[in-house]
Amino acid sequence: MSGVDRGLLDKSEEPAAQHETDPTRRDYLFHLGVGVVSVTSVLLAIPLVGFVCSGFVQGPVNKWISLGVLDSFPEQITRLATFRNPFTRPWDGQTGNIPVWVRRIAGSDFQVFAINCAHLGCPVRWFQESGLFLCPCHGGVYYADGSRAAGPPPRGLFQYKYKIEKDQLWIWGGEMPTLANPV
Amino acid sequence: MDKLRKTAVWLDDRLHLTALYASTAGHEVPKSSGSWFYVLGSGTLLCFVIQVLTGICLAFVYVPSTNEAWTTLNYLNHHQFLGWYMRAIHEWGANFMVAIMTLHMIQVFLFGAYKYPRELTWISGTFLLFITLGLSFTGEVMRFDQNAYWGLGIGVEIMGRVPGIGGGLVHLLLAGPIIAGETLSRFFTLHVFILPGLFIAIIAMHLRLVLNKGISEVPKVGRPVHKATYDAHYADILRKEGVPFVPYAIGKDLIFAAIVIIGILGCALIFGPSGPVGPPNPTVIQASPTPDFYFLWIFAGLALLPDWMETFVMFGAPLIIFVVMVLLPFWSGSGEKHVRRRPIAVLVVIFCVMVFGILTYEGATTPWSPHMEAWSSNPTPAKYLVGRTPLEMRGAAVFENKQCRNCHSLGGVGGVRGPALDTVGQRLTRPQLVRQVIQGGGNMPAFGKELSPAEVDAVVSFMQTLRSKGAPPAHNSTVPQNNLLRDVASNRMPRPPLRQ
């Protein structure tokens, strides 16, 4: 409809004059519109991108975590200990409980190994009889001291820093051990 | 009746339904495309629709919370009316979708349908394939059990190997430093909103391209594609033997759709849903995580690659596959379409199917994994104990207690990580056995620290008795032998002395 009207109007002088003023107004409105929407879109994008990327720029999460009293780790024995990860959410449930292998060599001489195989993170199992850690996924094998024995792992087991305080064993943890963040 | 007609005309005037029909369902296709080879695309689309419908049903009950997800999966399996069936259909729908999509891709490749002017159709299909694999992986995480927890761990460790930004990527993927509260929500969002949304958008483009450029005709030997003449040639085909897609070419699609529906419903009914296995509790470490079948080839590859090339292959291989697939229509965009004139294309398909097939088989059987319970649950076969000396019997006990069976089988039972030891006594001499046990090597750990000299003596003595009937023990051929071995070989002596 409007096309038809335009067609008729275009022939008269008056509308032609109007035609010349119109584009400037429309141009002005168009440019203003693009500008305003661009600025406001950026305003909208800031919280969206910030929200999604907040995990990317997190600060350090590691803390000293107690694994319990020293007496619970007999000498010459490697045993499983668990702790509640310091980075936690109320709806974590049991996934917030993290296991580690604690080897008490003698006295205050410890080794605390991550459960995650250094290859691809599967849970390694300790075999006291043969003195080996075996990984169920791709057959990684480690010696009792955590060094690589066989299979695809590129290094030995990840080891946590530890300290002994108030008759308890503490480890510096909170992060899932990976090759990028080897605890 | 008149009123009904008037309503229809009114609706059509507003919605332009007849025009829409004529340009989509009624569009002209070459008669040859009404072929059984052409049903795979619509089959894939059907699977996706089934996934959306069943996914919506599951979302009515499923709670994407690390604390509750496992419980709701069990609720779906055991309490929700038809919940188990809905889970099974969703899972089998995924299996069928990956399988039919793969066949669709192979068919399009072998028919040369990716060539001019359908480059973008192929490229959008490549994106759809990768999104489908993304949906499969995130879908496995939705089944939030022990396997999903550690499977996710594998994905995270792969991310952690990205040079430089690996640590940040891990945090981004997990929405935190560990697999916990927000991780599952993140994967739920990917699985339910982001990836399906992308998928629908790209499907729209994929179908639009099929309408714009027409479905590829069945190729004929000696009719190569020339960019200058193909469009006219295709228009000529449509003019000579064009038929409307509905109803002339859709018949086989519909029958195939029925077969797919019966297949999914039937498999779901017979095999049921899988899992959830144990709860996603990382402190329960008796887990042997394996992925669903479409990722078994990656799983196998990660076990079999030498570690020096592993990181490169992890990131390089998917990238190279993707880039090659995207560039394929530009690289060979014209020329022969028929398989009989494209031997290399056929070889490529055979090679890929064999590689993926063999790796999948290896991934399903995991010969590299120790059998964690073999040492305590598989007794030494009685025939390997009969007539042994006390020292050799003690060796057999050491063999079991030190978990040799986890990697080495006896009588066909036990791990297959290392070689079977049923005849090791005729392959390795005593010094070689001692060296192998104490120092390890060839992917075997060294047991020197874990075995006392007496235990080594016993276990090696036992292993020397592991020989086929009548076979002599291995010996060093540079050392002159006495007549004893000849006697043993001819069975004149009941039992050979094992040490001289």
Structural notes for this entry:
The complex is a heterodimer of chains A (183) and B (500). Chain A is α+β, with helices and mostly antiparallel strands and 183 residues long. Helix content of chain A is 27%, strand content 30%. Chain A has helices at 2-9, 13-53, and strands at residues 63-69, 77-84, 97-106, 109-114, 125-127, 132-134, 141-143, 148-150, 161-165, 168-173. A four-stranded antiparallel sheet of chain A has the order 5-6-7-8, with no helix packed on it. A three-stranded antiparallel sheet of chain A has the order 1-10-9, with no helix packed on it. In chain A, strands 2-3-4 form a three-stranded antiparallel sheet, with no helix packed on it. The longest helix of chain A is centred in the first third of the chain and has 41 residues, at 13-53. Chain A is elongated, with a radius of gyration of 33 Å. The N and C termini of chain A lie far apart (72 Å). Residues 1-12 of chain A have low confidence and may be disordered. Chain B is mostly helical and 500 residues long. Chain B has helices at residues 2-15, 17-23, 40-61, 69-78, 83-110, 119-142, 146-159, 166-174, 181-213, 230-241, 245-249, 251-271, 296-304, 307-331, 343-365, 374-377, 390-401, 430-439, 453-464, 484-489, and strands spanning 28-30, 242-244. Chain B starts with a helix and ends in an 11-residue tail after the last helix. The model of chain B has no long low-confidence stretch (mean pLDDT 90). Chains A and B meet through strand 3 of A and helix 7, helix 8 and helix 13 of B.
